[in-house]
Specification:
By secondary structure, the chain is an all-alpha fold. The protein has helices at 2-8, 36-44, 54-61, 64-84, 100-115, 130-150, 157-183, and strands at residues 124-125, 189-190. The radius of gyration is 19 Å and the shape is globular.
C-alpha cells in the first residue's frame, strides 16, 4: 500500500510483487513468501468470489460458527505476521501477541468437528466441495510457511509459539476440509494407489 511505496522508495508498481516484504537495509531479514498467502487463503473458503455462485453463497451462510473461527484465525495470522516482519526490538510499537490459549482454541475446534466425523481409515484427496478444497490449499500453504519459519533463529519463546500455532492451524484446516464435506453431504475422495 501507500506505506510500502513511501518507505521502500518503489517508483513503479512493476518493481514489486504482491506479498513482497521490504526491510531497512541495516536490518536484513529473509522474507517468508509462504506466510502471506495463508492469510488470504484461510478466509477464501467462506465467501465465493463470484457473486453469481448462489449455491456457494448459501453454503457459506450455513457455517456461521466456522466463519467466526476463521476471522479469529485471520487476526492471529496478522499478529504473527507483524512479529515476523520486525526483528527483536526493531519496533517501538507494542505489538499484540499470541499465547497458549490461541493454540488451545484450535485444538478445541478440531476436537468438536472431529467428534462429528467418522474415523479416517484411508488417505483422501482434496476435492468434493470447493470450500473443502480451499481449506486443503490453505493447509498446504501453512505447511510451507512452517518450513520457512523453522529457519528463523529462535531468540525467544515467541517464535516457538508461532510455529506451534501454524502447525496446529494446518491440522485444523485438514479437519475443517473433512467437516465441510460432511456438512454439505459430500463424500471424501479416497486415494486409490496404483497396483504394482
Amino acid at each position: 500500500g501507500q506505506v510500502g511505496y513511501i518507505i521502500a522508495g518503489i517508483k513503479s508498481v512493476k518493481e514489486s510483487r504482491i506479498g513482497d516484504t521490504f526491510y531497512h537495509s541495516h536490518s536484513p531479514v529473509q522474507a517468508l513468501p509462504g506466510f502471506k498467502p495463508a492469510k488470504a487463503m484461510v478466509f477464501a473458503g467462506v465467501y465465493p468470489v463470484d457473486t453469481v455462485d448462489y449455491d456457494l453463497l448459501r453454503d457459506a451462510i450455513e457455517l456461521p460458527e466456522i466463519e467466526e473461527q476463521l476471522i479469529q484465525i485471520q487476526n492471529n495470522l496478522f499478529v504473527i505476521g507483524s512479529h515476523l516482519a520486525t526483528s527483536d526490538g526493531g519496533t517501538k510499537m507494542n505489538l499484540p501477541t499470541l499465547d497458549e490459549n490461541d493454540i488451545l482454541h484450535l485444538e478445541q475446534w478440531m476436537d468438536k468437528m472431529d467428534e462429528l466425523l467418522s474415523p479416517l481409515q484411508h488417505f483422501i484427496l482434496p476435492g468434493g466441495h470447493q470450500f473443502s478444497s480451499y481449506a486443503q490449499i490453505a493447509r498446504c500453504v501453512c505447511r510451507r510457511a512452517e518450513r520457512r519459519m523453522v529457519e528463523i533463529p529462535n531468540t525467544n519463546n515467541r517464535n516457538t509459539l508461532f510455529l506451534q500455532y501454524i502447525n496446529r492451524l494446518s491440522d485444523y484446516l485438514f479437519v475443517l476440509a473433512r467437516f465441510i464435506l460432511q456438512e454439505f453431504g459430500k463424500q471424501a475422495i479416497k486415494w486409490e494407489p496404483r497396483s504394482k
